[in-house]
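ok trying this again, last paste got cut off
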Amino acid sequence: MRTPYVLLLAFPGINVASAGEFAGEMGPISHYAQARAITGRAGLYPSRYQSDQVDLCDGALVRCANRRLRASLLGIADNLLQCNDYFRGLAGRWKAAGKDPCHSHVKVACRFSRLAYLIVAGGELVPHPCLLPRSAILDKLIAFHQQHRTSPDRMLAELQMAADRLPRGEYAHEAVPLVKRLAETRTARRRGPQPIGDVLPLLLAKLGIGDVQLTVAGVRDLS
C-alpha cells in the first residue's frame, strides 16, 4: 500500500483487504476537515422524525449517504468486534447494559473512524488500547504478498514504499518479526531456495537493521 492508510494495519483485526477498501472509498484524507466528516459522509448517524409535538431522534441510519464507505466501515467494525480485544470488551459492556447489537456495530465503526482520521492525517500511530498488542504492518504485508504469490521484485518495491510511511519510532517494533522470518527462511534454504530471503535483508536495511544487528540476533549463524 502506497498511502498513509497503510498505518491502519497496526490495528489487530484489520487486514490488507479491508484497509485497502477503506482507503479506496475514503480518498485523500485532506478532503475531510475533521473526523466527523467521515461518519457524516458514510451516514453513520440516526435519522430524525419531527412532526408537531413528535420528535423521534433515534431512528434508523439516514438514507442519504455514501453506501460503499458505510459498508467498508461496518465491515471493519465486524472484524474489530471479532479480533480486537479492546472493541470486544466494549461490545461486552454495551451488551450487559442492554444495548442493541446494531448500536455496538455502528458505535465501533464511529470510534474507528475517529482513530483512523488521527492516524492517517497525522502520519503517526496514536497511543490507544485498541492498538495493543500492536500488529506489525510490514509482517502483515509480507503474509499478504506470499499468499498471493507476488514476485520478489514487486514485493520488495511495495514493502519499501510502505516502510517509507512508517514513523521512525516504529522501526524497531517492525523489525522484530522480520528478523524472525529471516532466521526461519535461512534455515529452510537447506530444503530449497526461498525468494523472501532476498527481500528481507534489504527491507531490514531500510529499517536500519544491518549485518551487525542480525549477527547479534543470531540470524547469520543460521545461514
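PB: full thing came through this time. Residues 137-222 form one domain.
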